[in-house]
Write a structure and sequence with these properties.
By secondary structure, this protein is mainly β. It is built from 2 helices and 28 strands.
Length: about 400
């Protein structure tokens, strides 16, 4: 045993008496949304130790735009954000991207292992390399400052993914790792690739597929953001329930909405879904259970109150969550409409006269190590396995 051991699985737990494991939910910040404005449901956030500054990259895309924009924001405390003018020509906070068609699915990080200062910021993104749908693919880019980006000359580097590509340097493996969508064709499953140089990537390996747990609410996966943490890996799944473009019946208000579920792994390849009482053993996912109840209790970050809150329709977490002092900060995008709000209505948005939904970026916080706790209503005991 090295370092902290969380209670998400039973790795060190032998017996519980009068006690139980409990999945905890992060608390949404009272000032949410902390950034307002139209966004594309993807963002990356880091705390840059060199400048003692929080940095955020978030996408903006109009309905008629040929390619997306990536905007930049900074903060000293991670709560009050500024949008600096980095593009003097446009007088905006949009950064300078490689010239590609349909820029999307980006994931930005600062590479702690990179010695070339011109490449200390890295990004994987999807685009059409020659402007046609036949060349949809994953591409790499580098930046010295997170603002001015240069494309990798050997692009494309991997097959297409149309959900956020969450890439990072895995110090434990000594490799770059990325999580993205299975395919092509792009089916809503979670796959993983790895690389030693950020250019030559392994084939996609699917690590999370649909099980009986996903049947009650017709759930599929709109990507998974990753957080290496205390020697294990946490996955924040954007769980999409009941895709439809048709009006929603009153008895199925959960349809065409997204919330966040938790996944857990000790090696980054074999993953467990996390429910009300911690990690669900993989063998259980094929058995008959009250999966409707289990899924309701497995929500990690819930969407807001239907038709009332700014994030009632859709939630995506940013990549990656951050450890700040004694808390974990999870930034997330949300909006007050369904995924296919242009079709399904119900209501299309809080303000029926607005052309677009109210969109923004919020913050949810969890106490350090507090994903799954061991609780007792009165008193109880937890006995560990023998360990060194």
């Amino acid at each position: 045993i090295n370092g902290k051991q969380l209670f998400i699985d039973d790795y060190i737990i032998d017996e519980l008496k009068g006690a139980e494991k409990v999945l905890n939910q992060p608390v949404k910040h009272p000032k949410n949304p902390i950034i307002t404005g139209y966004n594309d449901g993807r963002s990356s956030v880091i705390y840059d130790e060199a400048g003692k500054t929080y940095k955020m990259w978030y996408g903006v895309r109009g309905s008629k735009a040929k390619t997306g924009l990536l905007c930049y924001a900074t903060s000293k405390d991670g709560i009050a954000w500024e949008k600096p003018i980095v593009n003097q020509q446009q007088k905006s906070n949009s950064i300078f991207l490689p010239k590609v068609d349909d820029f999307c699915a980006y994931g930005v990080f600062k590479d702690p292992a990179e010695k070339d200062l011109q490449k200390q910021y890295k990004m994987l993104f999807s685009a059409k390399t020659d402007g046609t749908v036949k060349t949809w693919s994953v591409n790499a880019a580098y930046s010295p400052d997170g603002i001015h980006w240069t494309a990798e000359p050997k692009n494309p580097v991997a097959p297409f993914s149309d959900t956020q590509i969450c890439s990072y340097w895995d110090a434990r493996l000594g490799k770059y790792v990325a999580y993205l969508r299975y395919g092509p064709p792009n089916v809503r499953l979670i796959s993983r690739i790895e690389s030693e140089d950020f250019v030559h990537w392994s084939p996609k390996v699917t690590v999370i597929g649909r099980t009986k747990m996903d049947q009650p609410f017709a759930t599929c996966f709109y990507g998974m953001r990753i957080m290496p943490y205390e020697g294990i890996y946490l996955g924040f799944i954007t769980a999409y329930h009941g895709e439809t473009i048709y009006p929603i019946p009153q008895n199925k208000l959960w349809m065409d909405r997204k919330n966040v579920q938790l996944a857990f792994s000790r090696n980054g390849l074999t993953w467990s879904r996390v429910g009300r009482h911690g990690a669900i053993p993989h063998g259980e996912l094929s058995k008959r259970r009250d999966w409707k109840k289990i899924v309701r209790e497995a929500v990690f970050i819930p969407y807001g109150r239907h038709g009332k809150d700014w994030d009632w329709g859709v939630i995506y977490t940013s990549q990656p969550p951050l450890v700040v002092g004694d808390e974990i900060r999870i930034y997330y995008q949300g909006h007050d409409a369904r995924n296919w709000w242009t079709h399904s209505g119900d209501p299309p948005k809080l303000d029926p006269n607005a052309r677009e939904p109210n969109m923004g970026i919020g913050l949810a916080t969890l106490r350090l190590d507090g994903f799954v706790s061991v609780d007792a209503k009165t008193q109880g005991t937890m006995t560990t396995k023998k360990f060194l």
